[in-house]
Design brief:
Number of helices: 15
Radius of gyration: 30 Å
Distance between the termini: 90 Å
Strand content: 15-25%
Helix content: 25-40%
């Protein structure tokens, strides 16, 4: 280059000037605009590598449902809804940078569809989401809505949800932006009536408003140190591609649905309509509409961020019986494995299983009640097992007592003579007449 020639950018040809500085290298120069462009190109390379890693893990909705069937019994409608929603969400992410020839004639930007799950406690909401995240192999974070408050108050800010997701991704921002966030107990965010007092609802409606931008899609700045008000390096996480799933029991929601589909009868005498049989909770939840959630206490803006609404049915006796034995991590299999660690075979009769399902159904805690009943029935046996090296087998059975009641008792088998007998001081009696007795 001649001395009269001005230095220029080797990429775009911009001449050096007071407003256009150049960075000189061994054989060339580059301006600030080209540096920014190069950074964007390199960043897109990293995104494409993430896409290539995720592509082999994307399966059909039928395969997702088949995997969910291995862990969750029943809830067919909810599993199909989740499988389709997750498939469409990651199909959108994997094809967001396709060339125009692979798309429609005009550019169409697809928006994500977050999911809201409603259903009684213990019906499998958390298990469904956790199983889906494990199948996909994406980061998963679960947050409890009851601990969230508005910024500036004691409690967790909504930004802490993204911090947990980033921790689950090992600090990888791009990987975290493919993750799934499950917000549990979202029904506890229902706004409360003020009763004439101007009290700020910092843990109810205030949290709903704080979650709006995050759920829809925004850039959240997370400090690497994890502390507030500290001048440290920040990481920016874009939530536009994070799938948010909210779940809650919504107690009393079925009454709101019932009042809508079955208005009160105001007729008198001959004009009165005949009494109709009250629909079940499952039938009422099948008619759930966004207006019912608004009546419950969720603000319309929050409901609108979750266009997919599904419900989980209340568990009946037959479903609880299947939950005990059929899933891959069934409760009976867990206790059998726990006994097998000590060289003891555990057998639970069909009559005992049916009785356990009845007791759990009476507790109205869903599948969680099954573990509570089993734990109470086997507690004394598990206490005595380590002190009995001759013990080889235990059978949990339902026996008839002299007073006409029924109880769960453990029959033990010793290695000495192979005889079977009811262990002295066996597990606590489960009374049929007093389901919620102090023994539990």
């Amino acid at each position: 280059m001649d001395k009269t020639d001005k230095p220029c950018c080797s990429f775009c040809g911009a001449e050096k000037s007071p407003t256009v500085p150049l960075i000189a290298g061994n054989d060339g120069r580059i301006c600030e605009a080209c540096v920014k462009l190069a950074h964007q190109v390199v960043s897109s390379w990293g995104q494409r590598r993430k896409n290539q890693q995720m592509a082999p893990q994307l399966r059909t909705p039928a395969e997702y449902k088949r995997h969910l069937d291995e862990s969750v019994i029943g809830q067919e409608a909810a599993k199909e809804t989740l499988a389709v929603a997750v498939y469409n969400h990651y199909l959108r992410l994997l094809n967001c940078d396709r060339e125009p020839v692979c798309q429609l004639g005009e550019q169409v930007e697809l928006e994500k569809s977050n999911i809201l799950m409603a259903g009684p406690s213990g019906t499998g909401k958390t298990l469904l989401v956790r199983t889906l995240a494990r199948i996909l192999g994406v980061p998963f974070a679960m947050a409890d809505a009851t601990t969230l408050t508005q910024a500036g108050y004691v409690g967790d800010d909504v930004d802490s949800i993204i911090t947990r997701l980033l921790d689950a991704a090992g600090g990888d921002v791009q990987l975290a932006q493919w993750g799934i966030v499950y917000i549990d107990e979202v029904d506890k965010l229902a706004k409360r009536s003020g009763g004439g007092t101007a009290v700020r609802d910092i843990s109810g409606e205030g949290v709903q408003q704080a979650l709006l931008k995050m759920v829809e899609g925004t850039e959240v700045r997370i400090s690497k140190s994890g502390r507030r008000n500290e001048h440290s390096e920040e990481q920016v996480v874009d939530t536009r591609n994070i799938l948010f799933i909210a779940g809650g029991a919504f107690p009393g929601l079925e009454a709101l649905v019932s009042s809508r589909i079955q208005p009160k009868n105001t007729g008198i005498g001959f004009h009165a309509q005949p009494r109709r049989e009250a629909p079940s909770i499952n039938e009422l939840m099948a008619s759930l509409l966004p207006d019912d959630l608004h009546e419950f206490g969720l603000i319309p803006e929050f409901i609108g961020r979750f266009p997919i609404i599904t419900f989980l049915q209340e568990l009946d006796h037959a479903t609880l019986l299947r939950i005990l034995t059929e899933p891959r991590n069934a409760l009976v299999k867990q206790y059998k494995q726990l006994f097998a660690y000590q060289g003891i075979e555990l057998v639970i009769t069909d009559a005992a299983l049916s009785y356990i399902a009845d007791q759990a159904l009476a507790r109205k805690t869903g599948a969680r009640g099954l573990r509570a009943v089993l734990e109470a029935a086997l507690q004394q046996t598990m206490f005595n097992m380590p002190s009995q090296p001759q013990l080889r087998g235990c059978t949990l059975d339902l026996v008839e007592r002299e007073d006409g009641g029924r109880s769960l008792e453990v029959l033990t088998r010793m290695a000495e003579d192979g005889s079977e007998r009811i262990q002295s001081g066996s597990s606590p009696v489960v009374e049929e007449k007093s389901v919620l007795s102090a023994d539990f």
